[in-house]
Every structure is written in C-alpha cells, then in structure tokens.
Amino acid sequence: MRRNDELVITRMVFVTEGDEASVSFAEEDFQAFEKILHEDDYVVGWWHSHPGYGLFLSNTDIETHIYSFQLHNNYSVALVIEPIKIGSDEISPFKIYQVVGKQGKTEFNYCEIGSFISRNK
C-alpha cells in the first residue's frame, strides 16, 4: 500500500522451504504470491536472514532478487535481517537493499536504501 511517498508493507508471507544457509520457493509459495496479486496488492520484494554473518546481499541473493522480483517490479527490495543483533544496542538488526545494474549486463551490485520499521500500537 502506498501512503504519500512511503511504501507501507502490510503483511509478510513466509516461504515453506529453507534452512540457515538457503531458501527456496515451493509451489504453495507462488500460490500465495498469486493470491496477493489478485487482491489488488503487489509483492514488493523478499526478506531473509544472515544469522551471525552480517547484513549484505550475497551473489546468490542478488541473482534471486533479479530473477524472482526485480524483473517483475523494478522498485522491488530485499530486506536482510541479522537475528543475533535483535534487541542489542548495536546497529540496526536489518537493512533494506535495492539491486542496481542494467539488464543484459553481467555485473549487478546493491545499495542500501533508507528504511525504518514502525510498529502500530
């Protein structure tokens, strides 16, 4: 949902297949995405964690983002969570990235974009 110049994320869909080192999309995950699209919403990206490894996008993350999300929505985002830092006084336990580069070229990179989480009370 858009509110002024903000993108408001109203729900998250958990994927059904994954472990601490990888994630993949099952048929039922794609069905959940289709349901969102039929409800006049759209998928803005994906999120995953790097427990103990820091906040970044790996080459596999960049490839997943490009082919699963960015080709369908050029403004899509990837949110990475560092669950070990949740609740600590250190830096934010998450960052939101966009992948940058041109289709047809082999080199892509990513950049952090401004973000914050607001909890409804």
Short descriptors:
20% helix; globular; two-stranded antiparallel ribbon; 8 strands; alpha+beta; 121 residues; Cytidine Deaminase, domain 2; 25% strand; 4-stranded mixed sheet
Low-confidence stretches: none
- Helix share bin: 10-25%
The spatial strand order of the largest sheet comes to 5-6-7-8
Q: What is the rounded distance between the termini?
A: 19 Å
User: Which class in CATH terms?
Assistant: Alpha Beta
Q: What best-fitting shape do the alpha-carbon axes yield?
A: globular
Number of DSSP E strands = 8
Q: Please tell me the overall pLDDT.
A: 76
What percentage of amino acids are in beta strands?
Answer: 15-25%
CATH homologous group name: Cytidine Deaminase, domain 2
Q: How many separate structural domains? A: 1
SSE order: EEEEHEHEEE
| DSSP helical segment count | 2
The CATH architecture classification is 3-Layer(aba) Sandwich
Radius of gyration: 15 Å
Structural class: alpha+beta
CATH topology: Cytidine Deaminase, domain 2
Largest beta-sheet characterization: 4 strands, mixed
